[in-house]
Amino acid sequence: MSGCRFRYEDLPAHLRAQVDALAGKKTGSRSRNLEAKIQKPVASSQYSEVRGHRRRQPNKTEATYRTEVLGQRGDLAAVHYEGLTVRMANGHRYTPDWVVVTVGGGIECHEVKGGYALNSQQRARLAFDQVRVEFPWVAWTWATRTKDGWRIGG
Fold this sequence. Notes:
Strand order of the largest sheet: 1-4-7-8-9-10
Number of strands: 10
Distance between the termini: 8 Å
Number of helices: 3
Structural class: alpha+beta
Strand content: 25-35%
CATH class: Alpha Beta
CATH architecture: 3-Layer(aba) Sandwich
Shape: globular
């Protein structure tokens, strides 16, 4: 998997707070033993109410990626669907499909696309490339579903 690794302690305070929230920890506290909190794909008809809004669920391609790729890894402490949103210098926001916290404290963001190249995919790729430049300490992964499996790259 491409991308650089970084330490939790090197993150700015606002990103540490988001990581703590993903790992189910109170802001400011950090434990070396992260609990294994792995989300299982949920059928799209099952929603939970969060602050009066329906919580978004992964589509079939994203759920398959979670099961086939992320589910096979043994080094994951937490996996969250759309668990992190970053604001880029140009004012745009970017939310990766999957945010992964590894047992070692590393953060990986995975963007998942289907095999059909749509116009929106080109726009998403531009945003993905921009966020990789602005946040180089996060391991960014672009995964595309093909008829032969997954094509995974940076």
